[in-house]
Design a protein that fits this description.
The structure is a single chain. It is built from 2 helices and 4 strands, in the order H-H-E-E-E-E. The chain is α+β, with helices and mostly antiparallel strands. A hairpin with an 8-residue loop joins strand 1 and strand 2. It starts with a helix and ends in a 23-residue tail after the last strand.
Length: 115
């Protein structure tokens, strides 16, 4: 058992040295290959807090590009109206509902254009 542990530790050490000395291989292992024509804009994005609510769970856009819309834990559906207005109440779920619903489930998707 001790010899197996020693062999495993040695192999792990060798693998660590090889990966450390060959960064391009490491980069390809940890990141997807570049896609020609792709526009990576995620690095320029920012987090927009949803003040006074827990969430959001997910985002959706309507067919004309409006939104995004998001559902939050208290049952409201919020819509982003830009930097000046921020998140505004768009819809409310009923407090009399018998079951928990998810606003962005498939049944709701007809409203936002068949997500």
């Amino acid at each position: 058992m001790a010899s197996k542990l020693g062999v495993a530790a040695t192999a792990l050490a060798i693998a660590a040295v090889v990966l450390a000395l060959n960064p391009p291989t490491t980069h390809r292992l940890l990141h997807p290959p570049p896609v020609p024509g792709a526009q990576d804009r995620l690095h320029a994005s920012r987090v927009v807090p949803v003040t006074g609510a827990f969430g959001p769970e997910s985002l959706a856009f309507d067919p004309s590009g409006g939104g995004p819309y998001t559902g939050v834990a208290d049952g409201r559906v919020l819509k982003w109206e830009g930097d000046e207005r921020g998140w505004v109440d768009f819809a409310f779920t009923s407090s009399q509902r018998d079951e928990c619903i998810r606003p962005f489930a498939r049944s709701w998707s007809m409203f936002v254009g068949g997500l």
